[in-house]
Amino acid sequence: MEEKEDNDNWLLCAWEEVDDAGFVKYKQSEWRTDGQIYQGDPKPEVTPDLEESGEEEIKLHGDVILGHLLMSWQPLPPHPPPHKLLIVLSAGSAPGVLGKVPQTPGDLIIYSLEDLKGCDFKRFRNKLSDFSYGDKLPIPRGKLENADWITTKDLLIDIYGEEGALDVTNKVFTLIGLMGPANYLHERREQNAKLKKTTHGNRLSDFSKEHKESTKETFQRIKVYNSRMGEAVHLQKRFIKLLMIKGPRNKEVKEKEIRSSGRRHLQIMEKRSPATIQTLFDPDEDGFIPKIVVLEGPAGIGKTMTSKKIMLDWASGDLYQDKFDFVFYLSCREINTIPGNISLVGLLSRTCRLSSDDLVSILKDPGSHRGLLFLVDGFDELRWTLEEKSEGCLDISMETHKEIILQKLFRRQVLPQSSLIITTRSLAMEKLNTFIDDSRNVEIQGFTRDDREEYVHKFFGNKEDADKVLSIIKANEVVYTMCAAPITCWIVCTVMNQEIKKDLGLIWCHTTTSIYLFYLEVLLTHHSKKEQSVHRKQTCLKKLCALANQGVLNQQILFGKKDLERYGLTLDEVESVFLNENIFHWDIRNQTCYSFIHLSVQEFLAALYYALDDGSGSMEDTFLPEICKGKSLHGFNRDSPHLALAVQFLFGLLNKKLMKTFSESTDINISLRARPAMKEWAMKDINQDFYTQTIFCLYETQDEDFIRNVMSGCSGLKLHSSNTGHLWIDSNYSKQLSYCLKTLKRESFQFLYFGWLTVGPECQKMISPLLHRCQKVGFWGCAISSKEDEDESSSSEDKIKSVNISFLMNPESKIQELEVYRCKMTLSCCDDLCSIITTNQTLTKLEVTLDDDEKMSDSEADRCCEVFRNAGFTLIKWEEGWEVSIDRRK
């Protein structure tokens, strides 16, 4: 074909013809117009919607030709009816469009070679036989001598590869002076590349849309621990955001967090600046954008739920839309089940519904790598079996050991531009650090105060039921603290769901020990290593309990590797559900320590140490557990506060029904052989004085006979607040006290005194029937409040205003003497006190101390004093207030 001039407008048409034998032949022709506008018939029809886009759809005899808008209409060839038109290629002053489907490099070479005259094609082959390209030798002359277009194309691709073959073809055209074909091939190659890029981009977009739809379907419903077949909950409805903190903490802050309970624990949690799922990949103050984010936290804290929420939000278009085109979820627990070798493509095809071919298209496209996010959930659950470090690069389709694939991903030796989120329990952080160089570490700390309330409301879906459960949870500060872990929230809500329709006073309040046994059961059943035998689990648990027990005795909450080794524990053996790993800066070095998720968990396991069956049978032991310090339970509460909660758990383990249920569920035998010794210890030195912790211990047993044996000799009760080492028990004791006193089945008591306790509305309601059957009642240093949950931030003025003593008014009351000392009452209580003395017919003596109220005017103070005097009270002014009394016996 002659070289075309720039002002030529020409059209090259190719069509296929099927001969009688069924073979396909390709034909082509060229027509020129020499710049003349087409005037003949039939006149081409221009489709309006294509006219705007710069393309024309030219119809002739029912066949369709797609072409670029040229400077003038192009004449069409006489149409051969039996032929089917395939493609239109235009060149000259208006290079044509190849069509909507990109051509292969082989097609482009064929079109270029077919366009050559016989002598030009011969010159091309001759030059090709002595042309060297890169480190490749020329194609042997003998192979090219009689080669046709297709054979020549095949030789080019075999020797140089597809793109290399195009380069060589173009260079040879140039060397032999065929500039027209050279330019033509170059233009068509560029057009094809653009079309290929557009087509590939559209395909990736389609893949992403398909992947999002299937991911959304997979993650929108999840199973909970006790789900039966067909049961699931909607993740969007159940999920509650979790408090997440970036970066490590120092040793002192960590110790304080582990030890704290109740309000102090909440204050520590909520003091730090939180991170969010949305900002995990945001740049820091120095502009650093991480490629790897590690989410660490203990078992049951919500790592997997957070991972699934990330998947659902991305698939729903609510998260990372401008960052990641594809997000793949890899469950390490499921990876453990893969037998034999597998490729990265094979691994991903097990976790999503994209085909292997689709995955190859995605992973082999360098432009898409930055848009890939792999979410590896549960790194700590991986069973590492390979000793040696993997070397070399990994092809995405090459089958190898699954551990090598993960190592390559972590070390960014495959798809290095992609991003990773890795979730793990903190005990596995040391292992993970051997694979990753730089990451953003975020610790999941669980639910804040508001999050816990939101979770309970979502769980029950009914405000009345949710509020009822929340009041019960808040009444137990130990359990309320543990409800920072979603697993504990779920356990509490699940066990309370059976009781919720009852009146609040009739609800059986599960003991703290029962909640922690449920917690341990769920960890062992759903979060521990599946391949471990029951015997091995029990042996490991016994060693951990021994470590916990020694730590409680020595007031130690952080342990080193040597501490673990002392009890025969290795990091490979230890269940990561029980221990956290903490890395602290220490001078110029790092110090690695291990801790239990919270001190209360350590104290529970310390108590369990004395109940785990060591194989010596069920013979009861006469020796008292070592944590039961002192001569008696009464003296212990005063002298060993740091052991108080562990001993409370120990009394909870006296409940045979509870122990039996746990043993049957887990196949781990527990039996407290020291039962007789503990009961004898609790019976010693009993008098009228009880600490709240003693009441808690008795309540934990749920053994009415035992409680009666301990308390039956008491004609009255003086109840004092107590300290567990990390928690003052001065409130939320009313249910326990009411339960213990009801077991005595007495109509009345001689006296009931409360010392340094909080007496809130719920407590007032609970103890009121008991109070009014007593002859003498007293409150010393108590906070008698009209509000529940008054926190430390409340001002003294607010606390004074919230004093409420109306619960002491009862016309049927049997109270004869009432004392209220140093309970933050002021002269403003004059009306209530006068109402009590007139309402309670049997009340003969009332003594009250009142604080000065700086906000009260002199005239108001005079009015209150006058009210007291008119009612017969005696007022004595002292340095900081008043002493008000009345004695109707005189």
TrEMBL record:
Occurrences of domain Pyrin (ranges): 101-191
- Reading the lineage from the top rank, the first entry is Eukaryota
**Per the record, what is one GO cellular component?**
nucleus
Report keywords, A-Z. ATP-binding, Cytoplasm, Endoplasmic reticulum, Golgi apparatus, Hydrolase, Immunity, Inflammatory response, Innate immunity, Lipoprotein, Membrane, Nucleotide-binding, Nucleus, Palmitate, Phosphoprotein, Repeat, Secreted, Transcription, Transcription regulation, Ubl conjugation
Q: Name one Pfam family in it.
A: NACHT
Every copy of the NACHT domain together lies at: 291-498
Its Gene Ontology molecular function terms?
A: ATP binding; hydrolase activity
Query: SMART domains from the xrefs?
Result: FISNA, PYRIN
State where the protein is found.
Cytoplasm; Endomembrane system; Endoplasmic reticulum; Golgi apparatus
One GO-annotated biological process of the protein: innate immune response
PANTHER family for the chain: NACHT, LRR AND PYD DOMAINS-CONTAINING PROTEIN 12 (PTHR45690), NACHT, LRR AND PYD DOMAINS-CONTAINING PROTEIN 3 (PTHR45690:SF19)
Protein name, entry field: NACHT domain-containing protein
**What organism is this sequence from?**
Aquarana catesbeiana (American bullfrog)
